[in-house]
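User: Hi! I have a protein structure encoded as tokens and I'd like to know what sequence might fold into it. I'm fairly new to this, so please keep things simple.
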């Protein structure tokens, strides 16, 4: 059984939502994890980025390609 790996760091919630919708449309299994922590009022998001995408290694290249297309548009 394969395990999830961290694919890339997301910069903001808009970027996360857009990538999430595209990956769902393409039936690519993934998890988007936010770095927001209520106890610290999101302070880690300013240091580490908004969050990250996790997926199986076999989807890494496809996800990175989709992400780069989003960043260029």
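Assistant: Happy to help. Inverse folding works backwards from shape to sequence: for each of the 73 positions I chose a residue that suits the local structure. Here it is:
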């Amino acid at each position: 059984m394969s395990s999830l790996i961290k694919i890339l760091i997301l910069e903001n919630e808009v970027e996360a939502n857009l990538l999430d919708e595209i990956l769902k449309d393409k039936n690519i299994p993934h998890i988007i994890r936010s770095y927001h922590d209520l106890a610290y009022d999101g302070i880690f998001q300013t240091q580490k980025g908004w969050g990250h995408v996790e997926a199986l290694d076999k989807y890494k290249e496809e996800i990175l390609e989709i992400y780069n297309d989003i960043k260029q548009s």
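A useful reference point when you look it over: The chain has a mean pLDDT of 89. Feel free to ask if any position seems puzzling.
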